[in-house]
Amino acid sequence: MTTDTSNNTIDGFQLVIDALKLNDIDTIFGLPGIPITDLTRKMQANGMRMISFRHEQHAGNAAAAAGFITQKPGICLTVSAPGFLNGLTALSNATTNCFPMILISGSSEREVVDLQQGDYEEMDQLAIAKPLCKAAFRVLHAEDIGVGVARAIRSAVSGRPGGVYLDFPAKLFSQVMDEMEGQQSLIKVVDAAPRQLPAPESVQRALDLLKTAKKPLILLGKGAAYAQVDKDIQTFVEQSGIPYLPMSMAKGLLPDTHEQCASAARSFVLAEADVVVLIGARLNWLLSHGKGKTWGGANAASRKFIQIDIAPTEMDSNVPIAAPLVGDIGSCVQALSAGMDASFAKPPAEWITEVFARSSKNITKMAEKLKLNPSPMNFQSALNVIKNQIEARPDAYLVNEGANTLDFARSIVNMFEPRKRLDVGTWGIMGIGMGFAVAAAVVTGKPVIAVEGDSAFGFSGMEVETICRYNLPVCVVVFNNNGIYKGVDKNNNGSDDPAPTVFVKNARYEMMMQAFGGVGVVANTPAELEKALTEAVASGRPTLINAIIDETAGTESGRITSLNPTSGTVKK
Fold first, then answer.
1. For the chain, what is the radius of gyration of the CA atoms?
2. Which of 220, 538, 236, 235 is nearest to 395 (CA)?
3. How far apart (Å, rounded) are the C-alpha atoms in residues 394 and 412?
4. Which of 357, 392, 427 finishes a domain?
């Protein structure tokens, strides 16, 4: 403890550490530098785990993923100005995805910043952060550190979770105060995310609507996974008998092989459902805003939505919500299950039969594609290896990003346990891969398989050094098709420059891991990929597999080509 024993004082460094530890926060993700270098050293000396990255954005992504996995706010610690801005992308992404995270940044002194006198890395960080996160606070005095940390924690996890910014000017750390008064100023947050019970009339309205449904559907979002009320959700789904569709990060809440899972008939059930129950899922662009061609079909005009969300302002954001159910997910699904009395009938047999006839047909078609063994590999043949590995090791985490790599994996790789799939989320942001992988390995100790498009890997690839430095059980699989979407685009102006979407041909990504003492392997066939992946997961050693994919196999923008405006022919 950094304490002057003669005067019984305590400084700001120690108060920050003690405030975090008092609230059971023992792991920090960040990058040292002025003015927080000594804080990182002291954190480590006080028994906290300090995971130091090569770039703040990836440290922030790790903190966000840790928050999603643990329900405790993940902490990212950065230097001022440029470091703060690097972390801000991750903070904003965490807020958009409802991941509890706290970005703590050192900053320049207020009296210099406010007069714009040109301090080292001068920036009004609080003002910049406010529009991009759930809450933002600045602590100027040592006696307020406990309050600042407590407010940040409660803001991050209560209601709809999100990102919080905490600004610590450099002078704060060297401030001293009476040790006893300092310890008394710290706050242990009690019931940071209290239950919010739904109104009984709201529950009954939802049940009455479900009773009228001929083609009901349950949609599970990542909010349902975050809630960690897996048994309650399983009870509601199975008791209702309604087919369910998990969004990508909700996969595994119930096993993807569950008899009620309608993932293989996604387009059909979205178009045909007459009553849709949204559990921790938002009708944003990932669900075509609840309207349009995706939601066409015979019931388009009369379709009704039941939405479970802790934020009442989310209701009616795109379409009318006939039965809003405001409360925490656990309380809401428990209330729905309790209200299913003898008068509650399961969905008509015709609907169930039709849904699973479509599912079976599509599963069979996909199985036929997965059996093929083209040379070089395509996305399906390579992802079949990942699929089989996750079936063998359902406790492993799957981190996934890219365009085609992401889209194909969502539909091919089954998940069997909750919160084991981590991907790009609501923003579709690239670069989350290595940060998410580090977080999953650090906070759980479980094996991590990070399946990366070669473009997506480029955003955070240097963090393989971090993986090696901390000897984490992470296997990175880079799907290398020599470019963004494909590796075959041509430059139409006649110069020697490659097309904007084309990378260096036959890049040796595996040598990056070898450079830092990890295992690097090239896989040209499914058999080689299977051997390397099985060995990596079993060994727990940092590994990178350079999986060579047919450079013609990808499609433009994955499955969201419609969002990419085109201008016709390219003029020379």
1. 25
2. 538
3. 15
4. 357
Note whether residue 367 is domain-resident: no
Q: What is the pLDDT of residues 530-552, one digit of tens each?
A: 999 999 999 999 999 999 999 99
Q: Are 32 and 173 contained in the same domain?
A: yes
Quick: pLDDT tens for 475-497. 999 999 999 999 999 998 889 99
Res 59: pLDDT: 98
DSSP β-bridge partners for residue 50: 28
* 412 and 329 within one domain: no
Last residue of a domain, one of 118, 150, 184: 184
Q: Within this chain, do residues 415 and 330 fall inside the same structural domain, yes or no?
A: no
Is residue 159 predicted with pLDDT exceeding 50?
yes
Which single residue is written with the structure tokens 């098709």?
481
Residues 315 and 420 placed together within one structural domain of the fold: no
Q: Please report the DSSP string for 135-182 in residue order.
A: EEEE--SGGGHHHHHHHHHHHHHSSS--EEEEEEEHHHHH-EEEHHHH
Structure tokens of 173? Answer: 């750390």
What pairing do the DSSP bridges indicate for beta strands 244-246 and 275-279?
A: unpaired
Q: How many domains does the chain have?
A: 3
Burial of 408 by CB count in 10 Å (0-12 exposed, 13-18 middle, 19+ buried)? buried
For residue 376, cis peptide bond before it (omega within 30 degrees of 0): yes
Residue 294 lies in a domain: yes
Confidence of residue 5 (pLDDT cuts 50, 70, 90): very low
Tell me the DSSP string of 366-396: HHHHHH---SSB-HHHHHHHHHHHHHH-TTS
Q: Is the pLDDT of residue 570 over 50?
A: no
Query: What is the DSSP code string of 395-417?
Result: TSEEEEESSHHHHHHHHHS---S
pLDDT computed for residue 571 by the predictor: 39
- Sequence-ordered list of residues with C-beta below 8 angstroms from that of 343, at least 6 positions apart, any chain: 211
Do 379 and 292 have their domain in common? no
Lowest-confidence segment of 123-132, 281-290, 556-565 by average pLDDT: 556-565
The CATH number that applies at residue 147 is: 3.40.50.970
Strands 3-4 and 9-11: antiparallel
Q: What is the mean pLDDT of the chain?
A: 95
Segment (H or E) for 561: none
Whether the model clears a pTM of 0.90, i.e. scores above it, the answer is yes
- Helix (H) / strand (E) element for 221: namely none
- Same structural domain, 520 and 399: yes
Range of the domain at 63: 3-184
The number of CA neighbours under 13 Å toward the Cβ of 141 is: 6
Is the pLDDT at 110 greater than 50? The verdict is yes
pLDDT at position 566 is: 63
